[in-house]
Amino acid sequence: MKEEVFNLVFGDWDENLHRINELxxxxxxxxxxxxxxxxxxxTDFIKDLPDATTIAIGSALSCTRFYQ
Length: 68
Hints:
By secondary structure, this protein is mostly helical. 37% of the residues lie in helices and 9% in strands. It has helices spanning 31-48, 61-67, and strands at 12-14, 19-21. The protein has a two-stranded antiparallel sheet. The N and C termini lie far apart (30 Å).
């Protein structure tokens, strides 16, 4: 069986590069809104793929601890 890997990335949209910059730190006071969106997305993902393994890894150890 072929294993599929999915990557949920979040960060700030870089208009110049036309991609998400996952290392940016915007500090724009929307942390709760971002986390609500992430939680909703992960919940939907798990509903669609209940056998998938889900892990959270941050760009720094402190981020990974926060995600847990």
